[in-house]
Amino acid sequence: MKLQKVLPRIHGYLSNLNTSTPLCYTTRLQHDKINVNEHRAKVMARGLPEKKPLPGVKKIILVASGKGGVGKTTTAVNLACAMKVIEPNKEIGLLDADVFGPSVPIMMNISGEPMLNDNHLIEPLINYGVKCMSMGLLVAGENAVVWRGLMVMQALERLTRHVAWGPLDCLVVDTPPGTGDTHLSLAQNLPIDGAIVVTTPQSAALQVTKRGLNMFEKLKVPIIGFVENMSHAICKNCGTRNFIFGNETKQMAEQMGLEIIESFEVDPDMSECINSGKPAIYALPDSIHAEKYRQLANKVFKYLSSKDQKEAIAK
């Protein structure tokens, strides 16, 4: 019965459009267009979301990459641990913002469902002295996260503002590959102090990395510099450096006016560190990689200190 009642109305409406009401219909369209323009003007007047700091978190550093599989999470994990090692009195946090492919729980050897405190905030899990939170801790087992954009943003909101991070001197955020909603949301809602861009020397990786740099430039996120992974391999017999993936990172860094703040060669032992859940900074403390991660952490601390000084002078 409802379908029968609706159809005559539709036919009557269509017939009226062809005869007696073209002027009224046109007037209504013009009126609707005015309403849309007024609504659009109001939305634009609001501007971007206000950046609100995370309670108790002093500094936020993003670790990003345009392309996946370049060792971004390895860099984020070892950077966070190295910062804690060289400054043991500072509180360091590590956020795994890759909702679809969280790897931090494996690399940091953390598991189990986080607890809620009396303020209904999620308590981050701690290992190696670093506070950690990841979607991998909130999803059971090997279940896949199959969500649309809005749900991802809600999850990111929970991982940032519904976690008892404070007090923290620095939060290292491991972002997903690419230039998607996660980066946009983080940059527009949080006061980001700087981003480290991880890449490998291949042309394909560098081209995608350049897109990521352009994104951060548009979002006005300062770039600390490049970290180059898999820069070369060293022959165990003769010690010769083999640039198996090319050697184009330096050229692009110069073109973009950025610095390669650290470069890491291929090392089979790093794979074992990842699989065992023990970062190189702890598993191989005397290795070249561990020393370079300590140097990277020092450079980040110096960058943050210099940024504070410049902001104090500007005030």
Automatic annotation (TrEMBL):
One of its GO terms (molecular function) is metal ion binding. One of its GO terms (biological process) is mitochondrial respiratory chain complex I assembly. The keyword Cell division does not apply. CDD domains: Mrp_NBP35. Transmembrane segments: none annotated. Belongs to the Mrp/NBP35 ATP-binding proteins family. GO terms for cellular component: mitochondrion. It comes from Pieris brassicae. Coiled coil: none annotated. It comes from the Eukaryota. Keywords: 4Fe-4S, ATP-binding, Iron, Iron-sulfur, Metal-binding, Nucleotide-binding. This is Iron-sulfur protein NUBPL. The keyword Cell membrane does not apply.
